[in-house]
Amino acid sequence: MTDRQPRLPSFYRLVALDSIDSTNEEARRRIAAAPGELPEGTLIWAAEQTAGRGRRGRSWSSPRGNLYLSLVLRPTCAPATAAQLGFVAAVALSETLAALLPGPDRVRLKWPNDVLVDGAKVSGILLEAASAAAGRLDALILGVGVNLASRPESGLYKTISVREAGAATDPVELLERFAGCFVAWYDIWRREGFAPLRAAWLDRAAGLGQTIEVRLDHETLVGRFATLDESGALALDLPDDGRRLVAAGDVFLPGL
Ligand code: BTN
Fold first, then answer.
1. Which of 191, 201, 185 is nearest to 234 (CA)?
2. CA dist., res. 88 & res. 194, Å (int)
3. E strands in the chain
4. CB-based contacts of 177, cutoff 8 Å, min separation 6
5. pTM of model > 0.90
6. Which pLDDT value is given to residue 132?
7. Which of 129, 123, 99 has its CA nearest to residue 110?
8. Which residue in 159, 21, 2, 16 sits closest to 65, CA to CA?
9. Residues in CB range of 153: below 8 A, 6 or more apart
10. Candidates 70, 72, 126, 157: which one to mutate for ligand 1, based on the most atoms within 8 Å of Cβ?
11. Phi, psi of 138 (to 5 degrees)
């Protein structure tokens, strides 16, 4: 763990850990230990994870030097709307990284919530619901991982680290910058809804208007990435089959 403690906006309550299985799991345990009580803004930050988790059941390689955090959120919206928080985090992270990296136009967003630098994945977001008794939604856990000092090889995507992309930052600075950007966009989302987030996301969208491949659990779709709809679904125009809205899947872009 770095010596300096992060300075975060008053929205956050920082829990700094040296090593943990997964910050999302730690958040889930803390929520379960005190149902309804863990304050919104609780931010679990770890220097390393021993069992980091990714989307769709994958693992997330988590050596020291990168950023791993999970934020507890309690928005007063319908559970279906809560999925928009992944886009809030992705937009905030893309803004954070664009400000740190030299050169323009290197940061893009890949549906749903990946941030790309020079076309390679630099970070991932894992949004999970924590249920209280009787299946009622208690809180949301927003997990964010950023390849900062190192990156894993992935059979699925090209990967990159912030450092090899040319930004000399460390986990403390990156956490502080992301925390500031996130709370600003979270406020916008709470006051104005998804529209400004959707516009900001589309501004940086990778593959928009292009033919892309979307792998679902049991089928692969190839079509034109038309837009992000008002709920956060990917709208794909299929050659013979009209428009299809996709709520969960893996996107593969041409040439990447
Ligand atoms: C993805 O597959 O793209 C999402 C990766 C999310 C990784 C982060 S690291 C912090 C938090 N704790 C976890 O176990 N996963 C998320």
1. 201
2. 9
3. 13-20, 42-49, 67-73, 107-110, 114-117, 120-131, 137-146, 211-215, 220-228, 234-238, 242-246, 250-252
4. 96, 99, 100, 169
5. yes
6. 66
7. 123
8. 2
9. 159
10. 126
11. -95, -55
- 126 C-alpha to center of ligand 1: Å? 5
- Given a cut of 60, whether residue 174 has pLDDT beyond it is yes
| β-pair partners for 222 | 213
Closest C-alpha among 119, 104, 151 to residue 255: 119
What is the reported pLDDT for 1?
47
- Whether the pLDDT of residue 133 is over 90: the answer is no
CA torsion sign for 185, 191, 193, 199 is: negative
Residue located nearest, by CA, to atom 15 of ligand 1: 53
Tens digits of residue pLDDT in 4-43: 899 999 999 999 999 999 999 999 999 999 888 999 999 9
Task: Establish whether residue 54 lines the binding site of ligand 1, counting it when its CB lies within 6 angstroms of any ligand atom.
Answer: yes
Determine the distance from the C-alpha atom of residue 224 to the mean position of all C-alpha atoms in its chain, rounded to a whole number.
Answer: 24
Q: Which residue has the tokens 């059979």?
A: 155
The two tokens of residue 125 are 């977001």
Would you say the CB of residue 111 lies under 6 angstroms from ligand 1? no
2, pLDDT greater than 80: no
Strand order in the sheet with 234-238: 242-246, 234-238, 220-228, 211-215, 250-252
